[in-house]
Amino acid sequence: MLTESKTINSPDQRGKTAEAHPSALGGWLLIIISTLLCLGALMVFSAGAGIGQKLEIERFWEFSTLRRIAFVPLAWLVLAVFSRVGYRRWLVWENHFWLSPVVWFTALSIILLVVVLIPGFGHAMHGSFRWFKFKVGPAEITFQPSELAKWFVVMFLAAYAAYRGGKMRNFKVGFVPGCAVLGLVVALIGKEDFGTAALVGGVGMMVLLVGGVRWYQFLVLVPLIAGAFYLMVYRVDYRWARVTGWLGGDDPNAVLDSSYQARQSLTAIASGGIWGKGLGNGTMKFGWVPEDTTDFVFAIIGEELGFVGCAIVIGLFVVLMVCGILIVNRASDPLGMFLAVAITGTIGAQAVMNLMVVTSLAPTKGIALPFISAGGSGLLLTAMAAGVLVNVAKHGRVKQKKPTG
Amino acid sequence: MEVDRRNLWWGRIFLGVMLLALLGVVGWCYYLQRYKAEYHREKVRVQQLKIIPQTARRGAIVDREGRLLAVSCRSSSVWVDPSLIKDAEGVAGELAKLLGLKQAELAEQIRGRSTKRFMWIKRFVSEAEAESVRGLKCGGVGIQEEYERQYPMGSSSAHVLGFTDIDGRGLEGIEAACEDYLAQRPGQWRLRSDALRRPIGSQGDCEDGRDGKNVVLTVDTVIQKTVEKQLELTVKKFHAESAVGMVMDPRSGEILAMANYPSFKPGQARQVDSALRRNRVLTDPVEPGSTFKPFTVASALEGGYVSVNQEIFCHNGYYAGKGFGVIREYDGHGYGNLSVADVIARSSNIGSAKIAQKMGKNYFFSMIEKFGFGKKSGIDLPGEGAGILMPLEQWKWGQYALTRASYGQGPVAVTPLQLIRGFCCLSNGGRLITPRIIRGVLDADGTVVKNFVEADSFKGARRVISEEVSRQMVTKVLKGVVDRLGGSAHNAYLEGYQVYGKTGTANIPKKDGRGYEENKYISSFIAGAPAADPRICVLVMVRCPDRSLGLGYTGGQVAAPAVREIIRDSVEYLGVEKIAENEAADRNIARR
User: Are B289 and B523 in contact, with CB atoms under 8 Å apart?
Assistant: First the structure.
C-alpha cells in the first residue's frame, strides 16, 4: 500500500511500468470509440442523402456528410495523440497550476463565449449566436466556442479540485472560486444554448462535489438562482410567456416547431421495428426529420437499423461508461480520478440528454450525440477529452490482486 | 496528497443515474420498435404518400363520316390552396383582375375555406389567362392542366350528344349512354416523397391513365344540319312552339339525323333550362293523328279485311253509331265512296274508322303492338319513353277506343321515334327494326373495338306485314298522299324521287284529359323516298304552328315542305339515283 501510494504521486515513472502492464481499459475505450466513430460516419452519410442534391467531389467541404467522414481519421489522430501524451505534461502543471494550459484554455473559451455574442464576430444559426465561421481556403469551418468551454471548464474544475486537495471543503477556497467559474461559463453558454448550459452546470457541480465541496454549500445558490430567475425571466414578459407556454401550452407556435421535430424523430425510430428498414433504406431522412445528420442522427439509426442498431449504439455507450467508472476507481492520482469523472460524466450525460430528446423523453434542445453526430470541432474536442480519459486509464493502478511485474 | 474517496460516491451516483437512463432509453426503444412499429409505419406512409394524378383524355364522338362532334381538349384551370393564403383580399384582387371575377365574392370564398387545401377559382381559362396567373408572385395559387369537353359543331346534334358535367362525366345522350366507352381511366402514381413533396426514387405503384374510346355515330352531320335548318325555318315561318325531325334508314334502322328545335349548345348545357335539353324525339308521347292511319290500313290489308282498291262508304262526313259516338272528317269535308288508298290520300277519319271496325279491336290491337307502339324501341340512347298504348282490357265503351285509335287519337300516343320506326316497317318490306344511333367504337389509336353494323341488317327484326302489303302501302296507298294533284301533301312532291308519306294534323289534348285545345295542333309529315326502293324515312313534327298567320296549319302545309327539302338534300347527298315517274312505275311492275 505504501509503495502503491508512492507511485500514485509519480505518474510519469508509473507510466513506464504501465507500459509493461498496460491497462486493458484504455484499449477497450479505443475500440468502443473507434466503433462509434465509424458507425457515426456511416449513419451520417446515410442520413445526409437527399433529393436534387448534386455531389461535386471537389467541393466536398460543403457537404457535411462527406466532411464528417473526413473527420474520422482526424478524430482518430487526436485520440491517439492525447491518449499517448500524459495529461500532466500538457494539461495540468502541478507546480505552476495557474500557468497550466487548462487554465489558459478555460480563460480563452470564456473570452470566445463573450466574443461570439458580439454581432459581426459570431454567426447566428437558427436564431442564436453560437458559432464562429472561418474561411479556410475553399472550405468554411464553423466552430462553436461552447464546445470548447464545455470540455475545459469541467477539466479545469477537476484540475482545480486536485490542486486544492483537502482545502476544497473550505467554502472560500473550494466552493466560491469553483462556482464562480462554473456559473460564469454556464451563464454565457446559457444565453444562447440552454441544453449545453444545463449539461455543463450539472457535470460541473458533480465534479465539485467529487472534488470535496460539501453538498450543503450549494444551498447558498438557491436564493441567488431564485433572484436571478425573478429578474431575468418573471420580469421579462416574453420569457415568462415562454415558460408558461412550455408548461401549459398557451403559445402553440413556440412549442409547435420543436414538438414537430420530436414527433417526427419518434416516428422514425418506431417505424424501424426490431430489425430496421435496412441501411440506407430509411425515408425519414428526406427532410422529414429535421437535423437528421446532427442532433437527430439517432432517429435515422433507429429507422434504418431498428432496435438492434439502437441497442448496439446505446450498449456501446453503456460499456464506455462502465469503463469510465472503472478508470475512476483505478485512477492513480486525484487529478486523474477527477478528470476521469468529469470526462465520463460529460460524455454520458450528453449521450443521455441527446437520446432522451430524440426519443421524445425530454423537451428538444440542441445537444449532439458524442462520436456519432456530424460536426467537426465538437467531434475533435470530444476525441481530445476521450484521449485524456484513455491516458488516465493507462496511468491507472493495477488491481491489488494482480501480481505486479 | 490524499483523496477523500467518500466524495467519489457523488460521481458514482451521477454516472449510475446516467447508466440507468441509458438502459431506460433502450427499454423505451424496445417498446416503441416492438409494439408501436406498425402504427408509426402507417404514419410514415400517410405522411410521405404523394399521389401524382395521371390525366387521360375522354374519347371523342364522331359522326358516320368521322366528323368530330364532341372532343376533349387540353385546357388549364386555376385553383388555390386557401390554407396557404394569408392575404385573401390581395390574392382575390389579383385573380379577379386577371380572370374577370368579382373580388369581394372571391375573397369571401377563400376566407370561408381557409382550412381547406383546395378550391377551384376558374375552370378552363384561356392560355393567355393561364400564363398571366402563372406570372403571379403569390403563393397558394396553382394551375391544373385538365381536359375540357368541347363540341365543335356547336348546337348541332345537341340532343343526341347530350352533355357532361364539368369534370367530363356523361350526363345525357350519347355522353351518358356510352360513358363506359368514352370514359377515360385516370391513373395514379403513388410515390413516397420527401418533405418538399418531391418523389423519392420510382418505387411505389404507378398506374398510367388510359384514354377513353371514340364512339362513331350513325348520324350524318350533313343531313343532320339540313334537318336542323329546315326545323328552324319552319318554326320561324309558322311562329310555332317547337319542332322535331328525324331521318332514318329503313333498311338498317340507322338514324341519320335526329333534331329538336329550339336546341342548345352542349358546351353550355349546364346553364340551360332542362326542358330545352329534353330530347323530345325520344321522350314525349303525342297523339299521332292522321299519321297513324297507314298503320290501320296496313293492318287491315295484312289481315285480309280489305284490299287496296276496295270502296269504303264514308257517310258524307257524318258517321254515328251506338258505341262509338259521332265521327266527322276534319275541316268539315264529306266523302262518299273512297277506295282504301283514297281513305289515306284524303285522310278520311270515317274511312279509317270503318276499316278498323272491319278488323275488330283484338286484331287491330295486336297489330298496333306488333308495329312497336306502346313499347320502347330499344334505341341505344338513354331516356326513351314507351309512348302510351291503353291496354286492351280498357278498350271498352263499345267501339269508341277502336274507332278513335284508327285515326290516331284516344288510346294511342306515340313518340316520334316509334312513329318513324313503324313507318320504316311499312317501307322496308314489313320488318320492325331496332333504331340505332351508334355505329361502333374505336380505340384511341383507331382500332375497331365494337362494330354494331350487322351484315344482315334485318337480323332479329320481327316481320309485321308481308312484303306484298308493304309494297302496296308504299306504291299505292302512301304515294297517293304526295300526288301532285289530289294528295294532302302535294307540297312534298319531288320530281324523280317518288316521295310517299302521310300527313298528320293532330289536336293537342287538354291537360285534364277532357277534349282538345282550340287551334292548337301538332302538324306532322312522315315520308319516305324513293318509293321504288326506300332509302330514307323522314319525320317532321311541328308543335303549335300559329294558325292565325293564315299560312296554313296542317301537316301538308307546315311539315311537308320541310320534309321535301330534307329529302331533296339527303337523297342527292346520298347519291340516290333519280328516275322518271313512268320508269319507276315500270320497275315496280317488273319487280312484281
Answer: no
| Domain membership flag for residue B178 | no
Cβ within 8 Å, pair B15-A283: no
Chain centroid to Cα B48, Å, comes to 46
On whether any CB of chain B is under 8 Å from the CB of A197, the answer is no
pLDDT score of A253: 47
Out of B143, B161, B196, a domain closes at B143
Terminal alpha carbon distance of chain B: 143
Mean pLDDT on A308-321: 96
Distance from CA of A210 to the nearest CA of B (A): 5
Structural domain tally of chain B?
A: 2
Give yes or no: residues B226 and B126 share one domain. no
pLDDT in tens, A270-282: 999 999 999 988 8
**Highest mean pLDDT range out of A345-349, B162-166, B533-537?**
A345-349
Residues of A with CB below 8 A from B6's CB?
A: none
| Boundary residue ending a domain (B143, B169, B192) | B143
Spatial CA neighbour of B226 closest among B245, B252, B254, B248:
B245
CATH number at residue B390: 3.40.710.10
Quote the pTM value.
Answer: 0.69
| B432 and B580 together in one domain | yes
A68 vs A356: which has the higher pLDDT:
A356
Question: What are the domain boundaries of chain A?
Answer: 11-394
B194 and A50: CB-CB below 8 Å?
yes
Q: Measure B46 CA to nearest chain A CA, in Å.
A: 12
Lowest mean pLDDT among A243-247, A395-399, B206-210: A243-247
Residue whose cell numbers read 331533296? B568
Is residue B124 in some structural domain?
yes
Is B251 found in the same domain as B129? no
- Residue B167 is assigned to a structural domain of this protein: no
Q: Is B582 exposed, middle or buried (0-12, 13-18, 19+ CB in 10 A)?
A: exposed
Inside any domain, residue B305:
yes
Q: What is the pLDDT of residues A18-42, one digit of tens each?
A: 443 446 888 999 999 999 999 998 9
Residue A305: closest CA among chain B residues belongs to which residue? B33
- For B485, the domain range is 221-591
Which range has the worst mean pLDDT, A226-235, B173-182, B546-555, B559-568? A226-235
CATH number at B117 reads: 3.90.1310.10
E strands, B35-104, are: 49-54, 61-62, 68-80
What is the pLDDT, as a whole number, of residue B433? Answer: 93
CB-nearest partner of A318 from B3, B19, B43: B19
Looking at the complex, does the CB of residue B47 fall below 8 Å from at least one CB of chain A? yes
Q: How many residues does chain B have?
A: 592
Residue B487 has pLDDT above 80, yes or no: no
Residues B111 and B235 in one domain: no
Nearest in space to A365 (alpha carbons), one of A254, A284, A229, A258: A258
> Which residue do the cell numbers 268539315 mark?
B332
